[in-house]
Amino acid sequence: MATVTRRRALAALAPVLGAGAVTRLLAGDAAAQEPHHVAATSAGGHHGAAADGHATLQHAGFRKGGRVDHERNGFHPSALARDFDEGTTSRLASGQVLREWELVAYEKEIEVAPGVTFAAWTYNGRVPGPTLRAREGERLRISFRNASRHPHTIHFHGIHPAAMDGVPGIGAGLIEPGRSTVYEFDAAPFGLHLYHCHAAPLAAHITKGLYGAFIIDPEEGRPEADELVMVMNGFDTNFDRSNEVYAANTIPFAYMEEPIRVVRDELIRLYLVNVLEYDLINSFHIHGNFFEYFPTGSSLRPSEYTDTVVQCQGQRGIVEMRFATTGQHMFHAHQSEFTELGWMGFFDVCDDPDALCDLPGSP
Ligand SMILES: [Cu+2]
């Protein structure tokens, strides 16, 4: 069979198969090509069947036995969305707060779609790496150990001395396998940043999984809110320099299977980061609502009131919104292709945060 490009395969298969099945075919997963697996996509979903042409909304996640094994991966997208790593703090003689983390790079096979494994490169065994959270003006110290078989770095976005930039040839430069280094700088400016490996070839080192969100809170803080982080990413599962699956926080359709529960009228603050490689832009779109957008989170005043925002590679911003009514609100990339290949989910808006307001038809 001739090489199947992702786009050609999608055009041919998307109307017939669920996105999960397409993904499996592209990934060369033999099991997925059994008729049983393909046919199973038509049942059980709560988004209706193909009568109105929305067959592509059906996906692996709705099939019995077709879920990613989060336990084996060692991280769960639902937990990850609310997991902020504040490290450990102490005080320097000067009175400045010292905040410290330890990051270890190592290889780990993760399941990125049901039955599709990916030989990831990770910080601390998860993709994305921990969401590092600090406060403006603190001293940050990140101890980095490379326990993988390839040289890596940690390059932080933000303001810091050149020697702390985590790029080859500057400061400690490339950290060879088995070696360690310490990155240390003051937290500035406040906002939503990111960190990632800066070894060459850059796109490969990033797309393998070496990235994470990096939040610097303003000194005076932000209004209290239900806070979430979504790192928009994708995976090139067949190494053709294009992505076969898309997601926020790694696992396609994870927030369809487990919608993110939020409370009506409560302020939701979403830290949104785009680390996608191979596709120039990514986007976030909310249904039935509008949000205020703070580009790079570096101002306390929003620049935009909208329902869709676009981010280039490495771009990020803070989304703030409230839902006035209960119910299920979809969010997704507004590039339909990304959506169909995994980058979509639901907010489940409830009156009572402890109530079970599961989606009708959920397995
Ligand atoms: Cu690297």
Structural description of this entry:
- The chain is mainly beta.
- It has one domain (70-350): Cupredoxins -  blue copper proteins (Immunoglobulin-like).
- 12% of the residues lie in helices and 35% in strands.
- The chain contains 8 helices and 20 strands.
- The chain has helices spanning 6-13, 19-26, 35-39, 70-73, 77-80, 202-207, 254-257, 336-340; strands at residues 88-91, 97-113, 116-123, 132-135, 139-146, 155-156, 180-186, 191-196, 211-217, 226-235, 245-248, 260-263, 268-274, 281-286, 291-295, 304-306, 308-312, 316-321, 327-332, 344-350.
- A 6-stranded mixed β-sheet has the order 11-10-13-18-15-16, with no helix packed on it.
- A hairpin with a 5-residue loop joins strand 1 and strand 2 (97-113).
- The two termini are 37 Å apart.
- The model is unreliable at 1-5, 7-64 and 359-363 (pLDDT under 50).
- The protein binds copper (II) ion (CU).
- Residues 152, 197, 199, 205, 210 line the site of copper (II) ion (CU).
What is this entry, summarized?
By secondary structure, the protein is mostly beta strands. The protein contains 8 helices and 20 strands. It is globular.
